[in-house]
Amino acid sequence: MTRQAPKQMEPDSAVYKTLLESTKAIPWKIDWATMKFAYVGPQIEALLGWAPESWVSVEDWAMRIHAEDREGVVNFCVAQSKAGVDHEADYRAITRDGEHVWIRDVVHVVRKPDGEVEALIGFMFDITERKKNEARLAELQKELEALSYRDGLTNVANRRMFDSALEVEWANAVRNRTPLSLFMIDIDYFKQYNDHYGHVEGDKALQLVANTLRAQMRRPTDICARYGGEEFVMLIPGFTEEQAERFAERLRTSVNDLAIAHAKSSVQEHMTISVGVCTMTPDQGSEGKTLLRIADSALYRAKKHGRNRIQSAS
């Protein structure tokens, strides 16, 4: 019994065309010699509003790219195509009504047997929703990063942010040979305040003090941070020793003027602070921890000598 060989399937261009035009991706082809479109899928009109017959040459493609993206995308795609390299590009395409849609263009370079570029074929994908999600995630990441550097109760910088700022400002001061001042601030008898008035009132007092200290800052480079439970730290570049001492006194007075009742304080009937100050012009090879250590020592002396006072390291 003789078996008949199965019939070879003939390619059916109509089937291929139906498949291409039923996908969400938009197929296209450009003839390299003429730089004209040989084909654009009809899906293009639903997405961008431009009819397929309006896509005549690469000029039509280029002019329908957002002006901010156009030069970079066109130069990249032309260079990759000339080199015979398959590539892809993300860009904003202008719709017929003037809006824009994010497109990912995936391009395949077709070569002749001698290696010369014959055509470009590719697919356009609508990635607008993906770009929106990426933007939302990026914004969320910024918010999370900001939160990670902010004290949740007082809304000033936290210790992590202060440590980073000290490192940066110290390096700037070393490079520029300029002074840097650090203020260690402690609320006097805060444990007794908490014990007497309760933690809710204690939290409110911390917030008031933090806001008052922060209000004294004048420049973007100034930083106020919560360093511990009732301790705050401020970092101010550019002060002389005299200016730093006057600023410290202003901090002390500003909290004093809040007149927050403190029945358990041994120095006043209202809340007060003690401030340790250190101003240095750092040398190469020195560390910011030195500034912190000396200011902390000055704060210790301010507390030892009666509190509600400033103590300069000098």
From TrEMBL:
Reactions catalysed: 2 GTP = 3',3'-c-di-GMP + 2 diphosphate
Entry superkingdom: Bacteria
CDD domains given in the database record: GGDEF (cd01949), PAS (cd00130)
Pfam families the UniProt entry points to: GGDEF (PF00990), PAS_3 (PF08447)
PAC domain ranges (all copies): 87-139
GGDEF domain: residues covered: 178-314
UniProt cross-references to InterPro entries, sorted A to Z: Diguanylate_Cyclase, GGDEF_dom, Nucleotide_cyclase, PAC, PAS, PAS-assoc_C, PAS-like_dom_sf, PAS_fold_3
EC numbers, comma separated: 2.7.7.65
SUPFAM superfamilies the record matches: Nucleotide cyclase, PYP-like sensor domain (PAS domain)
Cross-referenced NCBIfam families: GGDEF, sensory_box
UniProt name for this protein: diguanylate cyclase
Organism, as annotated: Herbaspirillum hiltneri N3
